[in-house]
Design goal:
five-stranded antiparallel sheet, 240 residues
Length: 240
C-alpha cells in the first residue's frame, strides 16, 4: 500500500509512506478448536520516502479486523471471486456479503525509525537517536535518504466463534482477509491525523484430528473414511 503524506488539503506532499505485509501461512482449524495452532503473526514493513527533508510520521494506533466475505451467484463463476471483480458492481447475477470482526487494537508509542542515506557509492544507516551507524558500499550513484521501520502483530481469531474454512465452488465461495489500519500523525508542527489500511489475504483450512498424510492415503483410505465419519466438519445454522 502506497500513500502520499500531506499537512492538509491543497498542501504540498511531505513524502510517501509504503506499507508491506508479510505472507501469513494458512491457519488450521480443528474442532473442538485447538488454540495452540491458531497463533500467527504478521510483520508490517514500513518505508517513508521524504520530500523537503520531512521527518517520518508518528504512529498512533494499529487496529486489525478479520473480514469474512461470502460470494454468491445463481450462475457459475468463471474464475475465483474477489472484491476486484467488476461483475460485483455491474452485474445483477453476482453478489457478496461481508462481515468484519475486531481482532486487536494496539496503542503505539515511539516507533523506531531507521534512516538510510545513499550518496555516491556509500550507503549509511543510522537510527534517529544517532547511536547506531553502519556504512557500506553499494552500487548507487544518486544521493537520497529514506526511513524504514517494522511492526510485528500477533493474529488470534475472534473467539468464541466457529469459523467456516475457506472454500470455493461454482456458485458460492468464502474468503478471509485481515485488514490492518495504521493511524498516524504527519510530520511538521501542525500534526494532521491520517490513516492507511492494508488488506492481507488469509486462508482458514479444516484439518480433522488424527488425519493421515497423502503418502499413505491408498493404504489407509478405509481408516481415513472412518476418521471423517467420526469427526465430520462442523454443522452451521442456516442464515437468511
Amino acid at each position: 500500500m502506497e500513500q502520499n503524506l500531506t499537512q492538509g488539503f491543497a498542501q504540498p506532499v511531505l513524502g510517501q509512506l509504503i506499507t508491506e505485509a508479510s505472507h501469513i501461512p494458512p491457519i488450521s482449524l480443528q474442532y473442538p478448536l485447538d488454540h495452540s495452532d491458531m497463533h500467527r503473526a504478521v510483520r508490517l514493513n514500513l518505508r517513508f520516502n521524504p520530500l523537503m527533508d520531512a521527518a517520518p510520521p508518528q504512529l498512533r494506533k494499529v487496529s486489525a479486523k478479520l473480514q469474512a466475505s461470502t460470494f454468491y451467484s445463481p450462475l457459475p463463476w468463471e474464475d475465483y471471486p474477489s472484491w476486484t471483480n467488476q461483475g460485483l458492481a455491474n452485474g445483477w447475477d453476482r453478489g457478496a456479503f461481508t462481515e468484519s470482526l475486531p481482532m486487536a487494537t494496539f496503542s503505539m508509542g515511539s516507533l523506531k525509525w531507521v534512516r538510510h542515506q545513499t550518496m555516491g557509492g556509500e550507503h549509511r544507516t543510522q537510527g534517529l537517536d544517532g547511536l547506531s551507524l553502519l556504512d557500506h558500499t553499494t552500487p548507487c550513484n544518486d544521493s537520497r535518504s529514506y526511513y524504514t521501520a517494522f511492526i510485528v502483530l500477533p493474529i488470534v481469531l475472534p473467539q468464541p466463534r466457529m469459523h467456516i474454512p475457506t472454500f470455493h465452488s461454482c456458485l458460492i465461495s468464502r474468503t478471509y482477509s485481515i485488514n490492518v489500519r495504521l493511524s498516524y500523525h504527519t510530520p511538521k508542527t501542525a500534526l494532521q491525523s491520517a490513516s492507511t489500511t492494508i488488506k492481507i489475504p488469509l486462508v482458514l483450512q479444516y484439518t480433522p484430528k488424527n488425519h493421515h498424510t497423502s503418502l499413505d492415503y491408498e493404504a489407509t483410505s478405509a481408516s481415513d473414511s472412518a476418521v471423517m465419519n467420526v469427526l465430520p466438519p462442523p454443522e452451521y445454522a442456516s442464515t437468511v
